[in-house]
Amino acid sequence: MMRNGGRMQDWMKYAALAVLAVLAFGVAALALMNPGGLGGAAEPLPASVQVATPAATASPSAPAVPTATATPASTATATAPPAGIELPAEPVVLILGDSYTAGDGADSPDQGWAYLVANALGYPTNIDGVGGTGFAWGGGAQDELGGEYELRLQQIAATPSFVPNVLILQGGQNDAQLPNAEEVKAATTQTVLAARRFWPGVQVVVLGPSAPQPLGEELRATNTAVRAGAEAAGAPFVDAIDAGWFTPANSPGFDFDGAHPNSAGHAHIAEKFLESWAALTQ
Q1: Residue 76 within any structural domain of the chain
Q2: At 198, which CATH number?
Q3: The pLDDT value given to residue 83
Q4: In a domain, 41, yes or no
Q5: What is the total count of domains within the chain?
Q6: Exposed, middle or buried, 100 (CB in 10 Å: 0-12/13-18/19+)?
Q7: Is the pLDDT reported for residue 11 higher than 80?
Q8: Range of the domain at 12
Q9: CA 58 to chain centre
C-alpha cells in the first residue's frame, strides 16, 4: 500500500505540473495576441470621460515660468499735447521757419517777429528763416529746393558748435500748396521727432500759420494739419488762427502784401507769441 500510495502522490504531482504548464502557455498566448494588454497602451477612453493630467511643477534649480495670459489689444488714443515746456536752466534757442521768420514784410529783418522775440527773451538765439518753405514743402514752384524743416535741422545739427535746447518751429503757410493734409501732418510730426533725435532733450514749440486775413482763414485746413502733427509728437502748439490773432478788423493795419505782415504785423505776432510763451513756461 505504501508503494501504491507513493505512486499515487507522484502522479498527482505530475498532473499538477501539467496543469500549471497549460495555464502558463495560455497566458503567453494572450500576451502575444494583445501586446498592449499588460502594461502597454490603454484602450481609448470614451469621449465623455475626462482624463486629469498632473500640473507641471517647478524644479528647485529653475524658477517657475508664469503662464502667459491673454491681454486685450491696446488701442491707439490721441495724445494730448503737454501743458508747456520745461525751460532749461540756460536756454539756447533756435527759431526755424519760413519767410515770416526771415522777417519778410517788415521794414528790416531785425523788425521781424523772430528777432523781436529773441531780443525780448534775451537768450542766445539762432534764427533760420527761408522763404517759401515748410514742414513738408521744400520750396520752389515744384517743391524742388529741399528746404523742408527736417532737412534744415539736420544740416544745423551737423555743426557741433551750436547745440540748441529750445526749438521754435514756425510755419505752415507754404504747406498749403500740398493737396494732402495728411502729408503735412506726418511731416510736422516727423520734424519734431527728428529734432529730438538730433538734440536729445530739446524742448520744441510749434507756431502754426499766422497770416493776416483773409489769407489766415484760407489756411485753416493746413493749420489743423500742423496742429495735429504737433500733438501727435507731444509738442505744444501755438494756434494763431483759432486764437484770432488777425481779424478782418485789424488785418488792414498789419498787412504788407496780402501774404506777409508789415512791421506792425510782425510786432503783433511777437507780442501774441510772447503771451503764449509765458503760459507755456510758467
Answers
A1: no
A2: 3.40.50.1110
A3: 66
A4: no
A5: 2
A6: buried
A7: no
A8: 2-28
A9: 39
Quick one: 158 and 258 in the same domain? yes
Average pLDDT value for residue range 12-20: 41
150-178: average pLDDT: 97
Per residue in 76-115, pLDDT (tens digit) is: 334 444 469 999 999 999 999 999 999 999 999 999 999 9
In a domain, 274, yes or no: yes
| Buried/exposed code over 154-190 (b: 16+ C-beta within 10 A; e: otherwise) | eebbeeeeeebbbbbbbbbbbbbebeebebbbbbbbb
Angle, alpha carbons 224-142-217 (nearest 5°) = 30
Rounded Cα gap, residues 22 and 28, in angstroms: 10
Q: Which of 164, 171, 154, 273 minimizes the C-alpha distance to 222?
A: 171
Do 13 and 133 sit in the same domain of this protein?
no
